[in-house]
Amino acid sequence: MSYTVKGNTGEWEVVIGLEVHAQVISNAKLFSGSATDFGAEPNSQVSFVDSAQPGMLPVVNKECLRQAIRTGLGLSAEINRYSVFDRKNYFYADLPQGYQISQLYHPIVGEGQIEIDLEDGSSRTIGIERLHLEQDAGKSIHDLDPKRSFIDLNRCGVALMEIVSRPDLRSPEEAGAYLRKLRTIFRYLGTCDGNMEEGSMRADVNVSVRKPGAEFGTRTETKNVNSIRFVMQAIESEALRQVKLVESGGEVVQETRLWDAGKGHTRPMRSKEFAHDYRYFPCPDLLPVNLPQSFVDEIKAEMPELPDKKKHRFMDDYGLPAYDAGVLVAERETADFYEAVAKAAGNAKLAANWTMGDFFGALNKADIKLADSPVKAEQLGGLIKLIADDTISGRIAKEVFEIMWETGKDAEAIVEEKGLKQITDTGAIEGIIDQIIADNPAQVEKVKTNEKLLGWFVGQTMKASGGKANPGVVNKLLKDKLGL
Amino acid sequence: MSNALDLTLAGALSAMDKGELSSVELTQAYIDQMAATKALNAYITETPDIALEMARASDARRAGGQTGIMEGIPVGIKDLFCTKGTRTTAASHILDNFVPTYESTVTSNLFSQGAVMLGKTNLDEFAMGSSNQTSYFGDVVNPWKTSDGKNRAPGGSSGGSAAAVAAKSALATTGTDTGGSIRQPAAFCGITGIKPTYGRCSRWGVVAFASSLDQPGCFGRTVEDNAIMLRAMAGYDPKDSTSIERAVPDYRAQITGNIKGKKIGIPKEYRVDGMPAEIEKLWQQGMDWLRDSGAEIVDISLPLTDKALPTYYIIAPAEASSNLARYDGVRYGLRVEGVDLDDMYAKTRGEGFGEEVKRRIMIGTYVLSAGYYDAYYNKARRVRKMILNEFLDVYNQVDAILTPTTPSAAFTLDDAPSDPVTMYLNDVFTVPASLAGLPGLSLPAGLSSEGLPLGLQVLGKPFEEGEVLNVASVLEAAAGFQRL
Fold first, then answer.
1. Does A457 lie in the same domain as A378?
2. Interval B337-383: pLDDT, tens
3. B241 vs A60: CB contact, 8 Å cut-off?
């Protein structure tokens, strides 16, 4: 059942830990007042502090502390009211200070955990080791000129949260689910937009393999993987590489690797690329962060309902299966939309089916966002209400939905206008059935020995009623009249 | 006016208040003196045009009834303070073409209180030195002469600032003190200099040497001049996270000359081996003067005194090695092209930094490196904390501490110690208070057998600069020191 890699010597278990770098949503950088907008003109969002002019000093942006604490609370983690910023020293052209300010020894957030949702409906708890704040570096551009490199410092100094998981993940699927869950939490809290393609969320992937139940193997770290799909591919390819290596008598070297998306495998970084002694020490320009309990309490008081809690509430209150609940809570606005649909419909299960089925399908087909949907939650709920109280059948409802999508009109108005109300009047249906029985004596004979033919009678009846006959009533009446 | 140059800062303010003197006249006298004493090399950059423009503006303000604390006073600015539009070099080749586009908080405070800038004074490169001989712009000559005709060192690192005040090419100057860089040159040049409590003056815009130790302060002819200027410089600055939010008192008003009942501590550990008898004698003289004024002399012990220098020479280089990483040839300052980025770094920094700076970067890099961090840097941090606690304990018994400022008078430029450790010993009496962040002042109290000034140091409790100045004023009055 669980994921393994098959080698020549049997099954291998894969052990995965992820370090996620998430760009904090804030108006200003971690230690300067510069703006943080994505895609601005190169070097247009750079202050004296960011470009490390002589004598410039960092000042902590309190909003970034709040965002880190919010995220920490979202990870059910311990919040450290005492934390310290350290300098991580290395030279690079896009690192103006010659050091990155980070938190090595005393991170702002300690141990926590999140629940991940898997395709088969099961869920697992994954441990979080820590979350710390650090500055991003600038961007080096090497391919614009044969001789020169260009530097864009817009990103330099932007706040990042580094979230380190325990080595609790066991498959590419789990890693994918973990990243999706983190992204969901970020988005619920508004602490990171989670856009991997814009680089606001990146992952370092630690992978090792072992025989089930054995000690941990030696791990490699694949740096800066920038999509969930690539993370999953990198794990798969790296695990396979390690298994082949070990089985052929080799040894895994603890090293830093890079993901080559074009070739679909990882490759070792040149030793020069990582052979740093970072000489961490507490940044003497900043005092330790000492937050009063009230600072944390205020943030706590404003926390929205978190996805896991919402998921369990959906399961308990609406009777949804775990997987459906997981899908619906993945985005806060989807969850809000669903709840509004369910409320208007008065039938939570039907609301879930319709939201995830026809409605999401229509959104995907039209390639539009939830907020731009022509059918609002209350309207969708109104349609479902008509199904639930037998005013229309499910099949008619699909037609009505299509009209709603095109016209933006309410379901009730459409049903009224087009006369689509379901016929539940037994007298009217009886008339139709009697006519069909009378017109098809041969079929009537056959159905007595082959009950499967009942479907044919149902179909004929529905057709004759223009689809408006209540299928339940039709079934019951047919059985009575045909003596089944 | 007989001679404008003979006025103290307080005297000049009063003369200008009475209309006996204009800032333009005063400033012109200093510009002339700056030219006449050019051979001392006290200035790296002279700004007479700016000075006269500022003086005219000051006279206009005064005429309009607006007078700041430093209204119309011509001052020299240590070339470690960034001055908008005026080259700021830190006495280093690596910054010899650097013109800041911003004004340091301290100079900005001074100018908004009416001070007039005469120019940027010479110093040891990046404030690293005790003789001003590490400057890329050449030695500064101490204005005090002896019968042997040999030029004497002004001390360092603020050697140019001290020499300028002694030679009357500035009425007062700014300095910075990391391990004694104000107090030692003040003692060598026969003037008064104060380093306030760490956090009293903003470090924003001051080229960093060792962030946790660097503290701006000032030089003047008298204790009162120090009091006036410090008040104009000091104050909380939200741009410097280590500056302290605490009201700045009127220090001048705190100079009452009354020290009756005050307890003055005499630390026995400052009686170091090989201390010249004349220094010992001067120290004893100081005690007698204070006792005669009603103070109580208390023998105290600061057992960790001899650990201060080694502690300092781990912490200061460690911070410096990181602070100076930004001088990499990428964005400003010197760039020496190389075949690739690493080669450019090596060539730029190899040519841009002098020997002493390189030595400290190497020491700092070493003590922070993997495997040595705990043995050196972390241990030094612990000792530093103990040194602070030792002072705070002693301050439960005494109000201030009296010591000699330096273990000798100014050495000759030719015979300056060639081995770094002997040079570092110059700061043996000043470094402990730097590590503890305490305020300290040096005032001239007598002459050596060769006729060179000798200084006494007064140390105070955190933020008790007023107390320090008051005790010093009693010594000043008793000593009757004859300035140049």
1. no
2. 999 999 999 999 999 999 999 999 999 999 999 889 999 999 999 99
3. yes
Looking at the fold, whether A276 and A369 belong to one and the same domain comes out as no
Cross-strand partners of A393 = none
A440 in helix, strand or coil? coil
pTM for this prediction: 0.90
Q: Which helix (H) or strand (E) holds A323?
A: helix A322-329
- For residue A187, tell me if it sits in a domain: yes
Interface test with B, best of A32, A153, A273, A285 (most B CBs within 10 A): A285
For the residues A119-126, what does the mean pLDDT come to?
A: 88
- Chain A hits for B211, Cβ within 8 Å: 284-285
User: Do the Cβ atoms of A109 and A131 come closer than 8 Å?
Assistant: yes
The count of structural domains within chain A is: 3
Instruction: With a cut of 50, say whether residue B1 has pLDDT above it.
Output: no
Q: Both A144 and A117 in a single domain?
A: yes
Report pLDDT digits (tens) over A49-88: 999 999 999 999 999 999 999 999 999 999 999 999 999 9
The chain A residue lying nearest B339, using CA atoms, is A147
Q: Are residues A322 and A454 in the same domain?
A: no
| pLDDT grade for A443, boundaries at 50, 70 and 90 | confident
Range of the domain at B32: 1-484
Q: In angstroms, rounded to a whole number, what is the distance separating the alpha carbons of residues A29 and B149?
A: 58
Return the residue matching tokens 């996270």.
B241
Say how many domains are in chain B: 1
Task: Write out chain A residues lying below 8 Å of B104, CB-based.
Answer: 55
User: Could you tell me the CA-to-CA distances from A120 to A173, A354, A361, B253, B420 in Å, in that order?
Assistant: 11, 21, 21, 79, 71
Query: Helix B23-36 crosses helix B48-63 at what angle (to 10 degrees)?
Result: 160
**What CATH number is associated with residue B225?**
3.90.1300.10
Same domain, A189 and A136: yes
User: Is residue A304, in this structure, part of any structural domain at all?
Assistant: no
pLDDT digits (tens, 9 = 90+) for A188-215: 999 999 998 888 999 999 999 999 989 9
Taking the CA of residue A96 and the nearest CA in chain B, the distance in Å comes to: 6
% of chain A surpassing 70 pLDDT: 99
The answer on A414 and A444 residing in a single domain is: no
One DSSP character per residue, A138-194 reads -EEE-SS-SS--EEE-TTTT-EEEEEEE-S-B-SHHHHHHHHHHHHHHHHHHTS---
